[in-house]
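To the wet lab folks,

You asked to see what we're planning to order before we commit. Fair enough. Below is the target structure as tokens, and below that is the sequence we designed to fit it. If anything looks off to you, flag it before the synthesis order goes out.
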């Protein structure tokens, strides 16, 4: 894993060093755990800011998937009860054709998370290797030199080292890491819950894929909570910071850019109506073009250009 993630570990180590030097330059103690905690949080904010374009792409992809739901529903009805290999293959091909036509893909919503996974494990490995770097058992990782590693290795928060996990000895470390793991799992649950309950239409929710997502809504926090007991305090700080960013960012986006047909869209329409404001252009219903009506009350039928020319010649 160290070999695969080495380039990312190198970048993470340099970013940590940069922010650590910034905060020590303004007067924070170099070996203080809070200095390193703030550096980790600052690194998280920087990474999430870089990922904003991916998040915007994710939101656009989710919107397209919402608009795609009526077609998906018709496709499911078309192949309902057909379980043979040929039908399944045809349904899959037609689904892919729909995704290509609308320029979207279900996996697009996972992009920000997929990008963060190597960052997460790289930070985990850097913190895990800090004691060995400090002791001279291994070389520096990027900007994490032996001197800097010694400062980080000695850093504590409430007397707890950044390398400590829930499995480490001591009641204090167990209480602190347990509280952080619970908050981390809660933010994960709230983020997924607000997406499913507020930013999805009834059609989007009524399909097998979303039924699986509902199960994962409760399963993921449990998985993270169980896995969290093995992560160092420094990694938990990163995880909590990134979950909080995601939760707040998503709340802002859902409130101001709701998906079509969702509960959030209805709430936004109600807010605008209450304030007497016009809806944004992308939310306003498109006016249907109608043919002009004669004074007699009958609709004027559209006339082609060729027929119009012929009429002019006759006149």
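Sequence we intend to order:
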């Amino acid at each position: 894993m160290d070999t695969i993630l080495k380039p990312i570990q190198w970048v993470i180590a340099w970013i940590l060093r940069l922010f650590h030097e910034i905060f020590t330059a303004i007067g924070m103690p170099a070996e203080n755990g809070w200095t390193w905690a703030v550096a980790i949080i600052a690194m998280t904010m920087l990474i999430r800011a870089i990922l904003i374009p991916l998040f915007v792409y994710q939101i656009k992809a989710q919107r397209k998937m919402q608009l795609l739901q009526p077609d998906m529903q018709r496709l499911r009805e078309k192949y309902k009860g057909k379980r043979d290999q040929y039908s399944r293959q045809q349904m899959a091909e037609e689904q892919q054709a729909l995704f290509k036509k609308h320029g979207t893909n279900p996996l697009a919503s996972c992009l920000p998370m997929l990008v963060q996974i190597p960052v997460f494990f790289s930070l985990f490995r850097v913190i895990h290797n800090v004691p060995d770097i400090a002791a001279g058992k291994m070389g520096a990782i990027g900007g994490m030199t032996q001197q800097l590693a010694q400062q980080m290795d000695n850093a504590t928060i409430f007397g707890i080292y950044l390398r400590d996990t829930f499995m480490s000895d001591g009641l204090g470390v167990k209480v602190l890491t347990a509280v952080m793991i619970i908050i981390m799992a809660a933010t994960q649950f709230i983020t997924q819950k607000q997406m499913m309950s507020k930013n999805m239409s009834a059609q989007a929710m009524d399909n097998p894929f979303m039924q699986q997502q509902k199960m994962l809504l409760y399963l993921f926090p449990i998985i993270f909570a169980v896995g969290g007991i093995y992560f160092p305090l420094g990694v938990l700080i990163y995880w909590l910071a990134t979950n909080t960013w995601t939760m707040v960012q998503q709340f802002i986006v859902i409130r101001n850019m709701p998906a079509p047909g969702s509960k959030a869209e209805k709430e936004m329409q109600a807010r605008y109506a209450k304030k007497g404001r016009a809806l944004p252009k992308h939310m306003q219903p498109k006016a249907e073009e109608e043919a002009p009506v004669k004074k007699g009350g009958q609709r004027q039928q559209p006339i082609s250009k060729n027929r119009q020319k012929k009429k002019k010649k006759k006149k």
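Structural context that might help your review: Residues 1-80+96-261 form one domain. The mean pLDDT is 80.

Thanks,
Computational group
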